[in-house]
Amino acid sequence: MQIPREVLLRSYRAMRTIRDFEERLHVEFATGEIPGFVHLYCGEEASGVGVCSHLKDTDTIASTHRGHGHCIAKGVGVDGMMAEIYGRSTGVCRGKGGSMHIADLSLGMLGANGIVGGGPPLICGAALSHKVLKDGGVAVAFYGDGASNEGTTLESLNLASVWNLPAVFVVEDNGYGEATASSYACAGTQKDRAAGFGIPYFECDGTDFFAVHETAGEAIAHARAGKGPAMVHVHLSRWYGHFEGDAMTYRANGEVAKERAEQDCLKKFREKVTEISLLDSASLDEIDASVRDEIEQAVIKAKAAPLPEPEALMQDVYVSY
Amino acid sequence: MSKKSFRQAINEALRQEMRRDPRVILMGEDVAGGQGGSADNPDAWGGVLGVTKGLYTEFGAERVFDTPISEASYIGAAAGAAATGLRPVAELMFVDFIGSCLDQVMNQAAKFRYMFGGKARTPLVIRAMYGAGFSAAAQHSQALYPLFTHIPGLKVVIPSSPYEAKGLLIEAIRDDDPVIFLENKVMYDDEEDVPDDSYTIPFGEANLTREGDDVTIVAFGRMVNFANQAADRLEKEGITCTVIDPRTTSPLDTGTILDCVAETGRLVIVDESSPRCNMATDVAALVAEEAFDALKAPIRRVTPPHTPVPFASVLENLYMPDPARIEAAVKSVMGYKAKQEA
Ligand SMILES: Cc1ncc(C[n+]2csc(CCOP(=O)(O)OP(=O)(O)O)c2C)c(N)n1
Ligand SMILES: [Mg+2]
After folding, report:
1. pLDDT tens sequence across B23-81
2. Among A19, A295, B277, B314, which is most exposed with the fewest C-beta within 10 angstroms?
3. Are A126 and A229 in contact, with CB atoms under 8 Å apart?
4. Which residues form the domain of A72?
5. Topology classification of domain B2-194
6. Ligand 1 mean position to B81 CA, how many Å?
7. Is B306 in the active site?
8. CB atoms within 10 A of CB A238
9. Considering the domain boundaries, does residue A316 fall inside one?
10. Residues B85-117: pLDDT tens digits?
């Protein structure tokens, strides 16, 4: 399948933006200026971007605690995200949600989520809205290997299948839920779980944008065509600790370094597109430079932005106040 | 006796009870950590904040169980195991995650004894972290003890210091009913002298951290420390307070609360949980009903507002009760007396 040049450029830019955003947060978090918990998506960029490259603003996604990448891939602006993570009033959630709760419903982004397994049921509901309202939309739940063991996730697979919903379940399998390996915690296989609910199963290498793009494209087309839910099992690795501050004493020395060297989705993308002359190095370099500047500006703006006013504490508990 | 942190006190209580009774087992997400990991380090975490560190190394895979991220099944399994011969201590990590498994606690464990006509014993302990102050936002900061207190059949413990934590946790493990044991997440590094030997603190017996003549302050968990700080400052201005740490919200030591209010005639309640139907309303109702004649001023409650916990630190600080607000509440009830007498 030939991917349009403009989609390639946009996707590369999104992956680069996620990478730089997360690498920068890693540095900023260490200074102590960022409050709360931060879970980085580095190494997993091609998954969110590959999937979302098929989605419009009118499609819906639900994300996880590791949500920055999904937000960027769905089009949430980095200025608003950075400000949110810094707890500023200019943040996408006005500083009231933070890293784990970034959401922008106008872009079909139903929120990062602090509750593991929180997203899949919500995505059944979003898919139901798309179906009942006949707006042609699909709903995509991103969730981890760890979250695949939540009852809410397994019940949602069943519900989506029973109701024949335009829902896609994207299992981002980075091999760990916190410090516990999926080889320990997940019985059977994701493939058999999908089969158990009569759901078509797709899988791909999540460090290869082209593989994710192609596989997710099929799954999303299936759901969009009204044929019911699909599962996409994306194989990945996370490059940082579960959250910032985790020393990853459960992973072998050198494992992450090797993955960074050999399975970097950005490097692989660049190699592939330049090798077959889809894009030239110069246009990728240009994106790199422009993203670097964008992230730098986002941090500067976030740090300079005002803190929430005291009134914000009591606002938006309900629609009426 | 030696200085121990809140974290160490809890770890020591678990360790001593596991040594004492082979039926005591531990389960939860990453209570050991590292299972199946490429580093072959199966005690890598010891809980997300390191509270159970070393217990896997001492007691092994026969007694320390890392769970999949499946709260409904493992909390339910702990309840089932408790009803059938084990004495499980299950860790829910953040108490907010009770949303994923409440049925197993509320409809199962809590009700076995009563529904089965007194024929079941469910010696289950569920440990979880609670509380704001970590910028952990709306889904990781709640103080949900009123939710559990509301459910007949559950006992609910909120230790206010390392010493309290050790004695109350050992008591919880030896108790034959389901116990919810809530640890304030910002207190893990608090230190004080804690006996090395094991000891228990009985449930339903409040602790008076200080005694005074003017105002009774009832405070829960971390709020006990805030109440003591406020009382220290007030004392310099000539206002003396009795501070009551009820230790357990279920059972609740109503006798001590009523006795103290009878002496001081004024009551301030400090509760970190959402203000509607919380411990402050519960204690206020108790005193209004049972000690009305003793009251010289209206009861004052110091709680957060009726909102989710906000992320930004500036808002979270506004949200949280603090010593200054407690001080102001005490002064306001003292002021009320002055107005009456004038
Ligand atoms: C209901 C619930 N249980 C536990 C947690 C704590 N927790 C946060 S992330 C996480 C691991 C999730 O693993 P996975 O789904 O594989 O996602 P990953 O972190 O690998 O992206 C856990 C246990 C939570 N937030 N919510
Ligand atoms: Mg994972």
Report:
1. 999 999 999 999 999 999 999 999 999 999 999 999 999 999 999 999 999 999 999 99
2. B277
3. no
4. 5-310
5. Rossmann fold (3.40.50)
6. 25
7. no
8. 22
9. no
10. 999 999 999 999 999 999 999 999 999 999 999
